[in-house]
What does this fold into?
Amino acid sequence: MEQQTFLNILPILIVSTTTIATIFVEAFYKRSDNLIYWLSIVSLILTLIYSILTINVQNLNFSNTLHSGGITNLFYFVLSLTSLLVIISARDYLLRAKYHHGEFYILIFSSLLGMMLMASSRDLILTFLGLELMSLSFYVLAGYNRKVLFNNEASLKYFLLGAFASGFLLYGIALIYGSAQTTNILLIVNEFNNLLLKPLFVLGLVLLLIGFSFKVASVPFHMWVPDVYEGSPTVVSALMSTAGKTAAFAALIISFYGSTTSQVNFEIVAKIISYLAIASMLIGSITAIAQTNLKRMLAYSSIAHAGYMLIGIASANKLGMSGVIFYLIVYSFMNVASFILISLMENDFEKRISLNDFIGLANTHPWYAAIMALMMFALSGLPPFGGFFGKYYVFLAAIKADLTYLAVIGVISSVISAYFYLRVVVYMYFRTNEERKDIFHTSADNFVLVLCTLFVLQLGITPNLVLDLITRFLP
Amino acid sequence: MTLEQITFIILALIGLTSALMLIIQKNPVYSVLLLILHFFALAGFYLLLNAQFIAVLQILVYAGAIMVLFVFVIMLLNLSNEEALKDPFNLRKIIASIFGVVLILQFGVFFFIKAKDDLNVTISPNSIEAGSIKKISEVLFSTYLIPFEVTSFILLVGIIAAIVLAKRKFE
It folds into this structure.
């Protein structure tokens, strides 16, 4: 391997080396759990720093299969930051649940490796393998505590449906390969218009889209989301709903980034994606109203958010693509914070956290209530928080692309979703309960929550800086 | 009809019937044996496509190693009470089967009418060479080096997963 290639793929190497190193530490070292915890944090911080430092060096490595620098490093940054936040707060949760083992970190790292590969791959085979690596780790993480029945259910459901979706994806890739004679995304994008005339390619594309829709949790491939997010350990749900979605959208953006150039005839695909978006937004927000279980509510809201993000991809212009990435960044912070807040309230792990557990939180724990309220405002898309600008950019992109109806439906669905987000705030501030709820907080959790809050506020105050950065690196 | 087409039809019939019987069968041991038959039919397809190395691998790895594991697991689990696993035939199943049939018909119409021209591919003259171990390894260790390495990672995760889910003792 040449030195330059080595430097280019260093973030991936750091993560994969840490995975292997953790296995050895776990095997040969007794009481290794804390060592592994700190090792993971250090290597994730290294990945963060390195991917920001080399963001300007763009390269294609290994015969055009692996991209490095630019937008890829931006994705690396987001993915490893999300994993870092989750890992920092996961330890205390796992200790409380009495299953703090080194394997948890190994699996998080292998899923991170898969997600990073999905974001950097320029070859459909590598995309598929990255997706499988991510999914396999998630299946296990979802059922990590095998003594809890909920976890087993989540893991098994996710695995069965996920394997089915992988089948669709692979069949799609096979048909695309059959009609394009290559799996390289860059070559396929160049030939996109000619290939669209071949029915085989269109079918392959549709199957590919089905596979990706499953992973981004959009309707009608959303059935697994509520059960899996509810059943998994809460910290794992935090990772799955944010980093998992980011990686799947990264793969989707890379596969369709050719659509931003005007020469590509993207109309058929855009139409399919916009139907998916409409269904996801409406069904996600309307079903979330009926949920009293907080994790289920966030799961349905994540379906709706997948819908908003799909608008950006359907509008097929640069603003749409960078808007989606901006949205993903904000969404990661909002959702990680919300899930971690829920995880702080869990003590009995067979019991689910419902709306009633939030009654009177403002009196007993004003700071946590304030952060939760802020996250709910941000998720529902109220200005001046980051969530507002995420929605604003994708709606603007839709209007620019003459898809005004998508923006209109998006706004309607946002209004519907305000009901169930703000209901949490109402329960916290305007209802009182004598019973004092315990919150099992530690300084690590507080640190993560404050960091997420700052990021969400910062992205709401200076959204242009981040958007410019994204647009600059978009191919 | 050429000899290749006749072989293809025979293999397709064996493959489809064995796959169908596999899911209809009540006895899991029969199902596994039918799955082995299905793998052999698939290996035949690979041979028709001039991919001799993959055909051999298919038989060695799937029909040989993996299926032996399957048979052992089923015998050890002693799955005698399959009747309990049976679901009554309800509305949900009827709707699902309608959708399934529609999907199959769509695929059929698609492949035999719409995409007919796409499927008329001629076999390139050096395809026999391309299926050889030498060519495959050349590509595997040059163009597809990274996917090859990632595959090993996936296997590693599989091992860790098995340990986490089956062996780990919780207090």
